[in-house]
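Help needed: design a sequence for this.
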């Protein structure tokens, strides 16, 4: 148990403050100092929270869920069509919902959004993934090691889906065209395009991966609640429409489920993890 305690302590301690602010990006105005200081303060507990969930992976999950997990759900041809139709329907309420949120926006809500939007920070994913892999190797727990690999793989898959869709639709952000949710630049989008939300995609991929691995209902509620709050923060900040974050959530959940083997499509099987106590390898198995 001593190595685990040392690992937990080092992760929760967080990085030194002097290493958080990038060189050449030092603030010069008072508001900038406060903004950077709040970013430093917020990152430390978020990194610690990621480490806490990593350590929770070693706790056995629900037996019923483990039994249900043996039969993965096969995605049928109509599932993507149904999801796409549902997201398209949300276009009808994008503008009125955006107006309602912005008309009721307050400094208190902005403070909450400032915290929850940090869930997408790379440090959270690096600590959750790297911590799980290290913890699994040290404790000789392949499940924990596999979860670390699943986190980073689901992050990459959801990001790839998100980037491709942004390029196809090229949708403008609500802050740029508040009265026109149908402003698209077809096949001319970039990383700043609104549809879908990259933040929602990666945060939901992390929440789903950890929820499936930890397999405990209270933890799942906390994880998905955090992902929903992150999506709300993007709406509150006027950076995304409702349909943006919804499709991002669909991408994140789908990526995580495919990677951890809960869902299958086109013969894609779950990643295989081999652990020998000192190293781990990851591979996919495809059936044709």
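Sure. Designed sequence:
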């Amino acid at each position: 148990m001593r190595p685990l305690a040392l690992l937990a302590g080092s992760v929760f301690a967080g990085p030194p403050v002097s290493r958080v602010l990038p060189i050449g990006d030092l603030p010069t105005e008072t508001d900038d100092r406060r903004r950077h200081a709040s970013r430093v303060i917020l990152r430390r507990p978020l990194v610690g929270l990621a480490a806490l969930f990593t350590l929770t992976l070693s706790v056995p999950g629900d037996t019923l869920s483990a039994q249900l997990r043996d039969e993965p759900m096969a995605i049928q041809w109509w599932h993507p069509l149904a999801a796409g139709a549902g997201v398209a329907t949300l276009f009808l309420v994008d503008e009125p919902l955006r107006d309602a949120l912005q008309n009721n926006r307050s400094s208190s809500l902005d403070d909450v959004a400032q915290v929850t939007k940090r869930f997408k920070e790379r440090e959270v994913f690096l600590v959750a993934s790297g911590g799980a892999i290290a913890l699994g190797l040290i404790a000789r727990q392949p499940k924990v090691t596999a979860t670390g690999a699943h986190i980073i793989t689901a992050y990459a898959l959801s990001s790839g889906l998100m980037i491709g869709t942004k390029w196809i639709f090229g949708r403008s952000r609500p802050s740029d065209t508040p009265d026109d949710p149908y402003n698209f630049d077809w096949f001319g989008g970039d990383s700043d395009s609104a549809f879908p939300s990259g933040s929602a995609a990666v945060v939901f991929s992390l929440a789903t991966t950890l929820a499936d691995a930890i397999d405990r209902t209270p933890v799942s509620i906390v994880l998905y609640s955090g992902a929903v709050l992150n999506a709300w923060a993007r709406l509150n900040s006027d950076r995304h429409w409702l349909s943006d974050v919804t499709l991002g959530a669909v991408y994140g959940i789908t990526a995580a489920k495919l990677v951890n083997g809960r869902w299958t499509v086109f013969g894609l099987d779950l990643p295989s993890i081999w652990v020998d106590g000192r190293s781990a390898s990851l591979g996919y198995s495809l059936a044709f």
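The chain is about 65% helix and 5% strand.
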